[in-house]
Amino acid sequence: MQQSNGYIIGYTAGLTVVCALVLAFVSLLLKDRQDANVQREMKQNILSTVMTLDDKADVEALYTKRVKSYLVDANGDKVEKDASGAAIVVEKLPTSFVADEYKKSVNERKFPVYEIVNENDPNKTDYFVLPVYGYGLWNNISGYISLEGDLNTVKGVKFSHVGETPGLGARIADAEIQGRYAGKKLFEGPEMVAIMMQKGENGGGSASIAAFKDNPHAVDGMSGATITGKGVNNMLAEYFKQGYKNFLLNKKGGNKAASL
Amino acid sequence: MKFLHDILEKQRPAFEKGGKLEKYFYAFEALETFMFTPATTAPAKGAHIRDAIDLKRMMMTVVIAMLPPLLFGIWNIGNLHYLALGQADATFMAKVMIGLQQSLPIIIVAYTAGALVEVPFALIRKHPINEGFLVTGMLIPLVMPPDIPLWQVALATIFAILVAKEVFGGTGMNILNVALTARAFLYFAYPTDISGTKVWTFLDGGKPIDGFSGATALGVVAERSTQISEAKSDFAGQAVAALADKTYAWMPDLFSFESMFIGTIPGSIGETSTLACLLGALILIATGVGSWKIIVSVFGGAYLTGLLLNGLAVNAYMDLPAHYHLVMGGLAFGAVYMATDPVSAAHTELGKWIYGFLIGVMTIIIRVFNPAYPEGIMLAVLLMNVFAPLIDYYVVQANKNRRLKRATV
Amino acid sequence: MSTQVADAKVEKVSEPLFSKKNRKLLVDPLDGNNPVTVQVLGICSALAVTVQMKPALFMALGLTFVTAFSNLFISFIRNTIPSRIRIIVQLAVVSLWVILVDQLLKAYMYDISKQLSVFVGLIITNCIVMGRLEAFAMANKPWPSLLDGLGNGFGYGIILLAVAFFRELLGSGSLYGYKIIGADSLTGLPYQGNGLMMLPAGACIIVGLLIWAQRARNGYAEDH
Predict the structure, then answer these.
(1) What separation in angstroms does the CA of A111 have from each of A69, A193, A239, A245, C178?
(2) Best interface-test mutation with A: which of B147, B152, B186, B192 has the largest number of A CBs within 10 A?
């Protein structure tokens, strides 16, 4: 009796409505919290390239106080309005923004810039944090590069990866490897020279840092992970020899003019 | 000797059924048969055995066949050691001593670790201790780089015997080649100690000569291939040029075809010399222990795949002349000693051809197209080990179908 | 027919909540009838989320939650479900709970949810969930169904945690995120992480060894 078509259709409809209602309700209830989480993580990533954050740090407040963000194009000009003319807020862009832009050719991309301003003087920029994106051995790699106020010296980097080989390429996510980038320089005089990870490894840890102490454009490589290292190099070269290059040059010129 | 044997024989009652140490009978038996002729032999008359080839004799033959690559490998460790340190005039004996100093501990550790697993399992399962381990324990050191930490050798050996052999029921029941399982374990567990450029030449902490690079020939070609654009005019002939290039070949002729054939190149202890492997192949084939079909088809598969890639070449690696593939890396060693493992290989005659051929094909494909693994023979043999029963199954089925057709007519 | 129903009712009233039979529902899947090592279900996620213990724990809790409540819910409505579309109905109910878990994780445990990524969503294809619904909840009363769901979830969880224990300890020298062995760890013992354990193949080997140990102990033998 309960097998009649009418019963089945009614049952299905009823079940669907109930499930949909429950899920819609839950989704509405939790949406804000979820978005906040995504935002918080991004902000944490940006901040952690320039400072150490402990678990209790109030990322939200710190970010609002210290970070000024905007979008630039490959010419180094600020982009303030999107295609429909609405003002762009970098924080409101989709989380996959950098990855989406990566699909375009490098000169058509737009690049987010995060300025970390001084704790006491909100007009003085301490650091610039620039997101980068590229391709490792097996899958995508991404990261943030933070520069000192001179727009030349690397303060710190943060890389993450999707599927590099554990123990080899996956080491780019280790603090030890990332530490090798600190203090390296982007410019040689007025010329832009991207920082290259070298082939082979000189013992790791402090030995690795010592090995390229005198070369500001080279960092020690990861043994057995030549191709991931090359992916990182290509990523940096793409974003700094093109990409952010004009922005950095403009900004540097501007800074110089101001200081003269 | 006789009195030693007598002493041992006197202990026998304690180990036999009902004796005090009955549990340890197989440990006793292994010791006795290893050192002396067993007490029970076939009678002089009556039995129809023409040739007493048993497991023990077969395994000993393989061990003897492994001597050429082992001896060459020992010398080669010392040879490269002194060349890299710039002491080209070192004597033959000095080189051999360095080689022994590096390789003997690895061999001893491999055998000891193997015994640690084999003996308890034999006692629990109440079967004689298998001689199969004589071969595995020698193969494992031969596929290790000279610099491998000894604890890793021990760990890999224990892992391989346990997971590749005892889990499946012991000698003769394994699906995968045990020695290659040991190597694969290290390859994935501690990749920095068994790949890259640091491990293939034993430097003993000394400072190498200027321009020294520890890369293997396969590493050099793979590296060079990624640097050149994909225009035919750019990459043509570049793979061979790279092998002669000073940046990589820190010795004149280090990677020439002849030295790769003879084996004076960096690599795992036993894999470098194609010549020594072929000598071993002669012993295996002459005694009928190894299948010549598998050896020939591995080389054939690799060569034909190399030729095919030459025709389709879009980068320097694909352009590498096919005959170079045969002498580089561990192809020869794998073809002669690994692929022919009678347990894990295909058993049907046609199956052996297919099995070997596909090993050759897979090796070259992994070498050329997989950027993470410079050498492909290990993974190719392991993969085809898994497929061997399937190959056999279809060969048998095809034979059945053929005969059924004849029967119904 | 009617007498049978009446009998069942009487039996239900007299049966304590944790009768021997009900306890068996809860305990059996932990060892003798374990969903992972004996029935060999849910292997996919057991390989994927067991690199560290923390995600493994939350994956296990998530699956237990989904199995238990799907079982309970389906058991409540089991007599109303038209048998022709019962699989679809089961799927709808399971997906409801799965999405709930996913949403809650995203909102309250963002880190964990990122590590588990698609595997929370894939609970819906986990054979344990569908298997218990079809094999048990469709034919049993809500309380035993809930216990059965919990039991199977725990059985899955135990294996997940055991695998993650070995993988995290051997692979990175830590447990639940705390460095136990290796440089700058609690004990300071020298240890080099085993890369094989970081790969899914490592989980496969550990699950295999667990099955071996379990069968050797319980004397289980494959039927030929």
Answers:
(1) 11, 19, 9, 11, 38
(2) B192
Give the whole-angstrom CA distance, residue C36 versus residue C53: 17
Exposed e or buried b per residue across A62-71, where buried means at least 16 C-beta atoms within 10 angstroms of its C-beta: bbeebbebeb
Contact (CB<8Å) A226/B223: yes
Backbone angles phi, psi at B325, to 5 degrees: -60, -30
Measure CB to CB from residue A137 to each of B192, B195, B371 and give the nearest one.
B371
Instruction: Kindly provide the ipTM of the predicted complex, given to two decimals.
Output: 0.80
Contact A11 C89 (CB under 8 A): yes
**SS3 assignment, position C33:** coil
Q: What percent of chain B has pLDDT over 90?
A: 45
Residue of A nearest to B194 (CA): A224
Cβ atoms of A34 and C106 closer than 8 Å: yes
Q: Locate the chain A residue with the closest alpha carbon to C109.
A: A37
CB-based contact (8 Å) between A34 and chain C? yes
Task: Tell me the mean pLDDT in the region B350-362.
Answer: 95
Taking the CA of residue C107 and the nearest CA in chain A, the distance in Å comes to: 4
Nearest to B150 by CA among B196, B190, B97, B95: B190
Sign of dihedral through CA atoms C53, C56, C62, C66? negative
> Which of residues 168 through 207 in chain C touch B, CB cutoff 8 A?
192, 194-197, 199, 201, 205
Q: How many Å apart are CA B251 and CA B244, to the nearest integer?
A: 9
pLDDT at B365: 94
The reported pLDDT for the residue numbered C106 is: 85
User: For residue B346, what are its two tokens?
Assistant: 């295909």
**Residues C194, B167: C-beta atoms closer than 8 Å:** no
For residue C64, the model assigns a pLDDT of 92
Instruction: Label residue B165 exposed, middle or buried (CB < 10 Å: 0-12, 13-18, 19+).
Output: buried
Q: Residue C125 pLDDT > 60, yes or no?
A: yes
**Integer Cα distance of C52 and A162 in angstroms:** 17
Contacts of B195 in chain A (CB under 8 A): 224
Q: What is the pLDDT of residue B60?
A: 84
Tokens at C150, concatenated: 């919990």
pLDDT value at position C71? 92
Under 8 Å between Cβ of A45 and C119: no
Residue keyed to tokens 């004076």: B264
The percent of residues above 90 in pLDDT, for chain C, comes to: 19
Q: Is B193 on the interface with A (CB under 8 A)?
A: no
